[in-house]
UniProtKB/TrEMBL annotation:
Recorded topology in the membrane: Single-pass type I membrane protein
InterPro entries linked: Cadherin (IPR039808), Cadherin-like_dom (IPR002126), Cadherin-like_sf (IPR015919), Cadherin_CS (IPR020894), Cadherin_Y-type_LIR (IPR000233), Catenin-bd_sf (IPR027397)
Recorded name of the encoding gene: CDH7
Protein name in the entry: Cadherin 7
Signal peptide stretch: 1-31
Protein's cellular compartments: Cell junction, Adherens junction; Cell membrane
GO CC terms in record: adherens junction; catenin complex
TM region positions: 611-630
Record domain Cadherin: where: 84-164, 165-273, 274-388, 389-485, 485-595
MF annotations from Gene Ontology: beta-catenin binding; cadherin binding; calcium ion binding
PROSITE patterns per UniProt: CADHERIN_1 (PS00232), CADHERIN_2 (PS50268)
One annotated GO biological process: cell morphogenesis
Pfam families to which the protein is assigned, alphabetical: CADH_Y-type_LIR, Cadherin
């Protein structure tokens, strides 16, 4: 049986044939069938591939098939053709395919032996498929040829871009490195077949990061492209590296990664003192081992490369001072070793040197890695107490000495240069009986009383010596006042103002008086910093100018602008205040003179909807207030009885339910029935009109007034009176429920606030003025206006 290979006429046909022809010839896989011209292969080939021209023809002729990956055609991809010598073309032979992907990926035409791929193949998923082919009798399924195995290899195309599996990269290189110093090596992988074509051959290039760095195209090694890169100038670079397959040719796929390169520090900078001359002042009373001064030398390096040591090179007063290094801040600390005396030496001059602790020999040419400075220490005089010429003075006096006899003299002097006068006094705790006096100016001690040796033979006195001097106390100023506007500015802005025009120059005042003078800083406060109308320009002379940002201001749109101006002083700590500058928009003439300012009066037809609503709201509010006032006055003055048999102070609510009977003790509140401050006539019910007839009357002398009865009797009498009236009243409800507001308790200190009390005859209200209000108030005048003082109900 022979196998012929017929693949589709794609662009890969020539490549596939070339790839097959030479390797197969070398392995002795090919033979030529003289009769058919087919390519034949023996399953066990002899060493010489060309001896097939003289051998007997074998049954099977087969070959390795190729299939392009990622085929996107609509029709099944033709792979090749199987053919057996037994097949005479009469349809008796059937071809059967088995193995990897048979029937699911690869199909065979059982009549012709044509093989097709029905699915899209991916070489990166599976590079080749091993299949078995067999020719069988169509009727009996008996093999007519032995089973033979062949391989379908998936031919690679460039469908995968290079990828940096370890990216992004972080790398470091010392600063000041020479040209070509290796930084880091990057690597990209390509999933395509590295043995076929250039699909997996990658070259590297740098997209971003030139001219500082370069990359080797084949190895991916990144190197410095500039010498002596300085970390203090720039310490970090971000590179973008590209890897492109197809040896970088056009049409190749590419991938990128980022490489962050940090320049590490080396000791290439010497220390430098921030000042060449330092001056410090210390009091002469400064304790030993105290810090006299801290001096700083700046080093642009970091870490151990910035560490330094200090030493005193020379200076007057040897042994007076020492200097050490603060390991945290790298400051030089000058320490006092011996006492200071202003009167002996008032100043010291020192020469200080700072040297790097860790010097790199590679950069000695950039040295020296040290610096020097001068330090002057001034000793400040301190007011020292007077010093006695002798700490102990012994004096002798006779016990018969007269009062005022001089015994001796003490002497003290002021060690300060001022040499102030001395005043003397006796510590009276050592002379309680006041036997002695001392002259305040001369220090002469004299007797003040008669002495008795037998009573006290020795007197121990303590003498005080004090400086006599005039002290002038000056209160030093601190920054405790914020700056404000110098005056109340009235800023006018013409409607025809141009952009950039100065409309106001402002200044500020501050109650404080700093030694260096005032320095104010002006700026617009945060709410107005980004406004589109005005800007502020600081003139650097404690003034600022307000300028317009635009033109076309209109009073009709906005008559007044308010600018919050922030003013900051230069004190420590700095204080600030926000001042509001009012800018009024004005109508100006051609010379810029304001003619009229402020809001423009609008006509009725020009009112906006908001203005109309505001006016309407005001009118409605006024109407409601007037109605409330009228209603309150009417409720205060109208009579209690408006209709016959109507009680406005007893509200009987019917619910058509039965009362609780005699055991119901919660039907009413007893507290509301109590008011001991009102004397009522028991014959007159104030909760009903006087004209209403009652069926039960008490004689005027049958009961005492409520105010003269005890509390418990008052409640009992009042309740009985209401019960009897209800019993004889045919219109009373058939249940025990009573609500009244005519009898109030007496718990309020302010007494009763009820408007019902206004009807009492002792009321101080006078309603005679109602008769002057016209005929519309005649009814009220008749009810309330009573000039002769009689009751309205009489």
């Amino acid at each position: 049986m022979s196998l012929s290979l017929h693949q589709q006429a794609h662009y890969s046909l020539a490549l596939a044939l070339l790839a097959l022809l030479f390797p197969l010839r070398e392995r002795g896989c090919w033979g030529l069938n003289p009769s058919s011209g087919d390519l034949e292969k023996s399953p066990r080939s002899d060493p010489d591939p060309w001896e097939g021209l003289h051998r007997n023809k074998r049954s099977w002729v087969w070959n390795q098939f190729f299939v392009l990956e990622e085929y996107t055609g609509n029709e099944p991809l033709y792979v090749g053709k199987l053919h057996s010598d037994v097949d005479k073309g009469d349809g008796k032979v059937k071809y059967v395919l088995s193995g990897e992907g048979a029937t699911s990926i690869f199909t065979i035409d059982e009549n012709t032996g044509d093989i097709h791929a029905t699915k899209r193949l991916d070489r990166e998923a599976q590079a080749y498929y091993t299949l078995q082919a067999q020719a069988v009798d169509r009727l009996t399924n008996i093999p007519v040829e032995p089973r033979s195995e062949f391989v379908v290899k998936v031919q690679d195309i460039n469908d995968n871009e290079p990828k940096f599996l370890d990216g992004p990269y972080l790398a470091g290189v010392p600063e000041m490195s020479p040209l070509g110093t290796m930084v880091v090596q990057v690597a990209a992988t390509d999933a395509d077949d590295p043995t076929y074509g250039n699909s997996a051959r990658v070259v590297y290039s740098i997209i971003h990061g030139q001219p500082y760095f370069s990359v080797e195209p084949k190895t991916g090694v990144i190197r410095t492209a500039l010498p002596n890169m300085d970390r203090e100038t720039r310490d970090q670079y971000v590179l973008v590296i590209q890897a492109k397959d197809m040896v970088g040719q056009m049409g190749g796929l590419s991938g990128t990664t980022s490489v962050t390169v940090t320049l590490t520090d080396v000791n290439d900078n010497p220390p430098r003192f921030t000042h060449k001359n330092y001056q410090y002042t210390v009091p002469e009373s400064l304790p030993l081992q105290s810090v006299v001064a801290r001096i700083k030398a700046a080093d642009a390096d970091i870490g151990s490369n910035a560490e330094m040591d200090f030493r005193i090179m020379d200076g007057d007063g040897p042994g007076m001072f020492n200097i050490t290094t603060d390991e945290e801040t790298q400051d030089g600390i000058i320490i006092l070793l011996k006492p200071l005396d202003f009167e002996t030496k008032s100043s010291f001059s020192l020469r200080i040197e700072a040297t790097n602790r860790n010097i790199d020999s590679n950069f000695l040419s950039l040295g020296p890695f040290s610096d020097t400075t001068s330090v002057k220490v001034t000793v400040e005089d301190v007011n020292e107490p007077p010093v006695f010429s002798s700490p102990l003075s012994k004096m002798v006096v006779s016990e018969d000495a007269r009062v005022g006899t001089s015994i001796g003299r003490v002497s003290a002097h002021d060690p300060d240069n001022s040499n102030n006068g001395i005043r003397y006094s006796i510590d009276r705790n050592t002379d309680l009986e006041r036997f002695f006096n001392v002259d305040a100016m001369s220090g002469v001690i004299s007797t003040a009383k008669s002495l008795d040796r037998e009573a006290n033979s020795v007197h121990n006195l303590t003498i005080f010596a004090m400086e006599s001097r005039i002290s002038l106390i000056t209160v030093s100023d601190i920054n405790d006042n914020a700056p404000v506007f110098a005056i109340d500015y009235e800023t006018l802005l013409c409607e025809n103002a141009l952009p950039g025009q100065v409309i106001q120059t402002i200044s500020a005042v501050d109650k404080d008086e700093p030694l260096s003078g005032h320095r104010f800083y002006f700026a617009l406060a945060a709410p107005a910093a980004g406004n589109l109308n005005f800007t502020l320009r600081d003139n650097k002379d404690n003034t600022a100018s307000v300028l317009t940002k635009r033109g076309g201001f209109r009073r009709r749109e906005q008559p007044v602008y308010r600018l919050p101006v922030l003013i900051v002083d230069s004190g420590s700590p700095a204080l600030s205040s926000t001042n509001t500058l009012s800018v009024r928009v004005c109508d100006c003439d051609s010379d810029g003179v304001a003619l009229s300012c402020g809001a423009v009066a609008y006509t009725a037809t020009g009112l906006s909807t908001g203005a109309l609503l505001a006016i309407l709201g005001c009118i409605m509010t006024l109407l409601v207030m007037v109605l409330l006032i009228v209603t309150m006055r009417r409720r205060r003055k109208e009579p209690l009885i408006l209709e016959e048999e109507r009680d406005i102070r007893e509200n009987i609510v019917r619910y058509d339910d039965e009362g609780g009977g005699e055991e119901d003790t919660e039907a009413f509140d007893m507290v509301t029935l109590r008011n001991l401050n009102v004397i009522r006539d028991p014959n007159v019910r104030r909760d009903v009109t006087p004209d209403t007839p009652t069926f039960f009357h008490y004689p005027s002398t049958s009961r005492p007034s409520y105010k003269s009865l005890p509390d418990n009797v008052v409640f009992r009498e009042f309740i009985w009176e209401r019960l009897k009236d209800a019993d004889v009243d045919p219109s009373a409800p058939p249940y025990d429920s009573l609500q009244t507001y005519a009898f109030e308790g007496s718990g309020s200190v302010a007494e009763s606030l009820s408007s019902l009390e206004s009807l009492s005859t002792d009321s101080d209200q006078n309603y005679d003025y109602l008769s002057n209000w016209g005929p519309r108030f005649k009814k009220l005048a008749d009810l309330y206006g009573n000039s002769d003082g009689t009751s309205v109900f009489s």
